[in-house]
Write a structure and sequence with these properties.
mainly alpha; 72% helix; elongated; 0% strand
C-alpha cells in the first residue's frame, strides 16, 4: 500500500449506485411518512398504556426477586426480616399478585400461625376468590379449596417459595406439608445462590465498566482507530428508509398474524415471524438504496479482525452494565414508574410452553433483533448522522431514536443509555460486531432472567 493510500475500510463507496431522491417529491413524502409514523406510534402507545393499566394476572419479576431476597437470609441464617424491610417491600410492589405473594411471606415469616382475620386486599380480578379461599383455609378455619383452585393460586403466585408455603399450609390439613416445605427451602437456596452469582457478575462487570469509561474519557480527543462505515446515499434517502422501515414494523405484525391464521397451534411463531419479515424488508431496503449486495453490506459495516472486535464487545458490555444500572436507579427515584419496561416480554414468556417456542423467541430476542437493530442504528444511522453532526451529538441522537422506537416510555432512559454505549462501541471499533455482541448478551441475559423468575 502506498503511504498516502486509504485502508480499504475507510474508502468511500462507489458513487452513482446509491439513492438520491429529488427534494421536490422527497420532502413532501418525508412529511407524510413522518405524520403516519407519529400516528402509528400514538396508537401503539395508547394500546400499550391501556394494557399496562390492567393488573398482571400473576406475580412478576420484581415480586419474585424480592421473595428470594426477603426469605433467603431468613432460611439461610435464621435472621428475622425487619419491619423496615417489610415496609420497604410493600412500597416497592405495585402489582396485586406481587402484593399477595408478599402477604403470604409475611404470614409465614413474620407472624406464622396468624388467623385469617386480616385478609389481604390483593389480588384483584381473576383468581381473587380462589386466593382468598386458600388464605382462609391456610390461616383460618375455611374449607379446603379444590385441587384446580389450589393449582391456579400456586401458579399465579409464581410457583416459588411463597406459593409452596401456602400449599404446605393446606397440606398440613391433609397428609402433612413438611416435605413440601423442605423442597421449597432447597429451591429457595438455589435461587438465592443464583441471585448471588448474578449480583457478583454485575459488580465485576461494573468495575470493568468503570475502567473502560475512564479509558474512553482519557482518549476521547484522539482520532477513532477505524472510521465509521461510509454511506453515499443522501440524508433524504436515509430519512425515507428509516420512516418506511418503522412503518413496516406495524405492517409485519399483521402479515404474520394473517399467515398464521389457519394454523392456531403455531400462533407462538407470530413474534419471530413478524420480526423476520420486518428485518428482511429493512435489509433489502438498505441494500437496494445503497446498491449493495448482502455480502458487500456486511463487509462494509463489519471490517477488521473478529477477535479484536469481540474483545471490545466484552469491554463495552461491562460499560453498559455500569451505565444502565446507574441510570435505572436514578430514573426510578425521579420518575417512579408504575409499570416494568419488561412487562410485555414477561407476559409473552408466560404464554409459552415447551422448548420449541421458547427457543424460537430466544433466537429472535438474542440473535435476530440485535443483528438487525444494530445494523440500522449503529451501522447505518450513526454514520449518516455523523457526516454533518459532531460525534457526541450523533451518538446522542441515535441513542434517543433507538430508545424511542421501542415504544416503551418507562424504559426510555435505560434503552437510550444502552443505545449510547453501543454507539460508543461502534465508534471505537468501526465494526458492528462489538455492538451486536453487547446487544445480544444484554437481550439474552434479560430473557433468561425473566424465564427463570417470571
Amino acid at each position: 500500500m502506498q503511504p498516502d493510500a486509504m485502508p480499504p475500510e475507510a474508502m468511500p463507496p462507489e458513487p452513482g449506485a446509491s439513492w438520491h431522491p429529488h427534494r421536490s417529491w422527497a420532502d413532501p413524502l418525508i412529511a407524510l411518512l413522518a405524520l403516519l409514523a407519529l400516528m402509528a406510534a400514538g396508537v401503539a402507545l395508547s394500546v400499550r398504556h391501556e394494557r399496562a393499566t390492567r393488573p398482571l394476572e400473576r406475580a412478576g419479576l420484581h415480586g419474585r426477586i424480592l421473595e428470594v431476597s426477603l426469605a433467603g437470609p431468613k432460611v439461610l441464617t435464621g435472621r428475622e426480616v425487619s419491619d423496615k424491610d417489610w415496609t420497604k417491600a410493600g412500597a416497592q410492589l405495585k402489582e396485586p399478585w406481587d402484593r399477595a405473594l408478599l402477604a403470604v411471606l409475611k404470614a409465614e415469616l413474620k407472624a406464622r400461625g396468624k388467623d385469617g382475620k386480616n385478609l389481604p386486599d390483593e389480588p384483584t380480578g381473576a383468581g381473587r376468590e380462589g386466593f382468598l379461599r386458600a388464605w382462609e383455609a391456610a390461616y383460618g378455619a375455611g374449607p379446603l379449596p379444590d385441587r384446580a383452585t389450589r393449582d391456579d393460586v400456586h401458579s399465579r403466585l409464581g410457583g416459588g417459595y411463597a406459593a409452596d408455603l401456602l400449599e404446605a399450609r393446606l397440606r398440613d390439613r391433609e397428609t402433612g406439608g413438611e416435605p413440601l416445605r423442605a423442597q421449597a427451602r432447597k429451591a429457595l437456596l438455589i435461587r438465592l445462590a443464583e441471585l448471588g452469582l448474578l449480583g457478583t457478575a454485575v459488580m465485576l462487570l461494573g468495575v470493568g465498566g468503570l475502567a473502560v469509561g475512564i479509558y474512553l474519557l482519557g482518549t476521547w480527543g484522539r482520532p477513532a482507530p477505524r472510521p465509521l462505515p461510509a454511506w453515499s446515499l443522501s440524508g433524504r434517502a436515509a430519512a425515507l428508509i428509516l420512516l418506511v422501515w418503522f412503518l413496516a414494523f406495524f405492517l409485519s405484525g399483521h402479515v404474520a398474524a394473517i399467515v398464521l391464521l389457519p394454523f392456531p397451534g403455531l400462533r407462538w411463531l407470530a413474534v419471530p415471524l413478524s420480526y423476520l419479515l420486518h428485518a428482511a424488508f429493512g435489509l433489502h431496503l438498505l441494500c437496494s438504496a445503497e446498491g449493495l449486495s448482502y455480502g458487500a453490506l456486511w463487509r462494509r459495516v463489519a471490517p477488521g479482525r473478529v477477535g479484536r472486535d469481540l474483545a471490545w464487545g466484552g469491554a463495552f458490555l461491562s460499560l453498559a452494565v455500569l451505565m444502565v444500572m446507574t441510570v435505572a436507579l436514578v430514573s426510578n427515584l425521579i420518575l417512579k414508574p408504575d409499570q416494568s419496561p419488561q412487562r410485555d416480554l414477561q407476559e409473552m414468556l408466560r404464554s409459552l410452553s415447551g422448548w420449541g417456542p421458547n427457543l424460537a423467541l430466544f433466537l429472535t430476542v438474542a440473535g435476530l433483533a440485535p443483528f438487525f437493530e444494530e445494523l440500522m442504528f449503529r451501522g447505518f444511522l450513526l454514520p449518516v448522522l455523523a457526516r454533518r453532526q459532531p460525534m457526541a451529538l450523533a451518538l446522542l441522537l441515535s441513542a434517543l431514536l433507538f430508545g424511542a422506537i421501542h415504544l416503551q416510555p418507562a424504559g426510555l432512559p435505560t434503552l437510550g443509555t444502552l443505545g449510547w454505549v453501543m454507539g460508543l462501541a461502534m465508534r471505537q471499533t468501526g465494526s458492528l460486531r462489538a455492538p451486536i455482541l453487547v446487544h445480544a448478551c444484554w437481550n439474552g441475559s434479560l430473557f433468561l432472567l425473566l424465564r427463570a423468575f417470571a
